[in-house]
Amino acid sequence: MSYILALDQGTTSSRAILFNAAGEVVCTAQEEFEQIFPHPGWVEHNANTIWSSQLSVMQAVVAEARSKHTMSLDAIAAIAITNQRETTVVWDRKTGLPIANAIVWQDRRTVDFCQSMREAGHAQLVADKTGLLIDSYFSATKIRWILDNVDGARVRAERGELAFGTIDTWLVWQLTNGKVHATDPSNASRSMLFNLRTLDWDQDLLDLFDIPRSLLPHIVPSSGILGHSEADLLGRSLPIASIIGDQQAATFGQACFKLGMAKNTYGTGCFMLMNTGDQAYPSKNRLLTTVGWQRQANQAATYCLEGSVFMGGATIQWLRDGLGIINRAGDVEALAASVPDTGDAYLVPAFTGLGAPDWDGRARGSLVGITRGTTKAHLARAALESIALQVAGVLGAMQKDSSIALSELRADGGACHNNLLMQMQADFSGVAVVRPKVTETTALGAAYLAGLATGVWSDTEQISSLWAVDRVFEPLMDEAARQNKIARWRQAVERSLGWAEN
Ligand SMILES: Nc1ncnc2c1ncn2[C@@H]1O[C@H](COP(=O)(O)OP(=O)(O)O)[C@@H](O)[C@H]1O
Ligand SMILES: O=P(O)(O)OC[C@H](O)CO
């Protein structure tokens, strides 16, 4: 039994990947699903569609493994789960049916409520307990919104009839046909209801956000058998042996096991996480402190500092779908490389506000410094630069917070295949950027945690030895030019802040 079936439930697609004991991809399947935008600033998913797409890709992968690779189901040691974080589902415990669409992490409907909580002076308490800033990004205010806006929901929640879960919890519920209602500390630490030090739900926070405890899942370690899938789903019941939020999973999959090692994932958003060991560092520079993973119950967790950037690869999707200046995301590299610079134009992609380090829900996108000479190539280059500059800002804050000088930044996610973007990243942050051979690090990290629990891998040293470099991008820009670039970017960002009126 030396294969792991990893489920990677992301913001725009559900994926299933089968890994072998060398940490290599054996087969993979992916299905996109509908993004629902009922009002400006709102983003929803249908939780049933999430489950049906996830089921269909896991069945497809198992079917391919059996037919193409003549593998028996007995060769799969376990299922691993990793997921888009914060996205909130509330469902009926009896019927298993969601009572509303899932509210996605990007959804901004609770911005005003969050502001009122900050104005009422709750920010310090929340930061001390959770490591988070009060923001609509996290689950707590999304749960509260559902309880207050879906007919009868609060009364039913108080009677214990409803369950809350992030997507990991929802998948486990579906896989076990409602037998297991669980999450892990990496996901729970994004709820704004979880105490980073006790590694448990916090009653003061539940009271503050007015959320009944009966809604909440049990907390289990990120690694370890927590239940078994129903036999009819895949033809045999399989142990479920890990749960971990996707960004923490990528940190594990990048083998960032030592203090100060960091990765950035270039997906829809960009998420940089640095391992800070068994210390939950409070950030002084508006980063988040979060649980990386907890390997065993009653053991200390590994913590991370995180900088979350909302618009990463999604900026390139906007060039493709919103402006129509490219046909495929990959085309942006050649277009941007056709000009030597942006002509001092900057794009600030604050389309849904700004995350770290500005955290401004009212910021909106801006394009500054354009002239009659600005072309779509300059715009494409400014879009790529905006990704690298946002990440460089997070990296700067992280270095200030932890006083650790990074020796390298490990890169992954769909946009890490863009060599120009990787070079910009090295230049703007003054640090070597390293792309590994296997870039499916999110699913891989979850697979490693499940495989550690089921004997596929013995320890993290063995996993570190499987990590291999594809390409290193060294910084080439001189320091004065780098500082100037960052200063100009900050001027552009200032023009985006606070733009939206409501
Ligand atoms: N060559 C590329 N250059 C820049 N961006 C890219 C490139 N290829 C893909 N992307 C962007 O990367 C994102 C997809 O990456 P992925 O890791 O699959 O995202 P997610 O897991 O968040 O859905 C999309 O937003 C897409 O626009
Ligand atoms: O699904 P992704 O890869 O866009 O990741 C989403 C993050 O987990 C949100 O915090």
TrEMBL record:
Binding residues for ADP: T11, R15, T268, G313, G414, N418
Binding site for sn-glycerol 3-phosphate: T11, R85, E86, Y137, D246
Keyword list, A-Z: ATP-binding, Glycerol metabolism, Kinase, Nucleotide-binding, Transferase
A cellular component annotation (GO) from this entry: cytosol
Domain Carbohydrate kinase FGGY N-terminal span(s) in chain numbering: 3-253
Domain Carbohydrate kinase FGGY C-terminal: 263-453
One protein family per Pfam: FGGY_N
Residue sites binding ATP per the record: T11, T12, S13, T268, G313, Q317, G414
InterPro entries for the chain: ATPase_NBD (IPR043129), Carb_kinase_FGGY (IPR000577), Carb_kinase_FGGY_CS (IPR018483), FGGY_C (IPR018485), FGGY_N (IPR018484), Glycerol_kin (IPR005999)
Pathway terms, separated by semicolons: Polyol metabolism; glycerol degradation via glycerol kinase pathway; sn-glycerol 3-phosphate from glycerol: step 1/1
Stated regulation of activity: Inhibited by fructose 1,6-bisphosphate (FBP).
Reaction(s) the record says it catalyses: glycerol + ATP = sn-glycerol 3-phosphate + ADP + H(+)
UniProt: glycerol binding residues: R85, E86, Y137, D246, Q247
GO molecular function, one term: ATP binding
Biological-process GO terms, alphabetical: glycerol catabolic process; glycerol-3-phosphate metabolic process
Protein EC: 2.7.1.30
Lineage: superkingdom: Bacteria
PROSITE patterns linked to this entry: FGGY_KINASES_1, FGGY_KINASES_2
PANTHER family, A to Z: GLYCEROL KINASE, SUGAR KINASE
General function of this protein: Key enzyme in the regulation of glycerol uptake and metabolism. Catalyzes the phosphorylation of glycerol to yield sn-glycerol 3-phosphate.
Similarity comment: family membership: Belongs to the FGGY kinase family.
Protein name in the entry: Glycerol kinase
Organism of origin: Jezberella montanilacus
Name of the coding gene: glpK
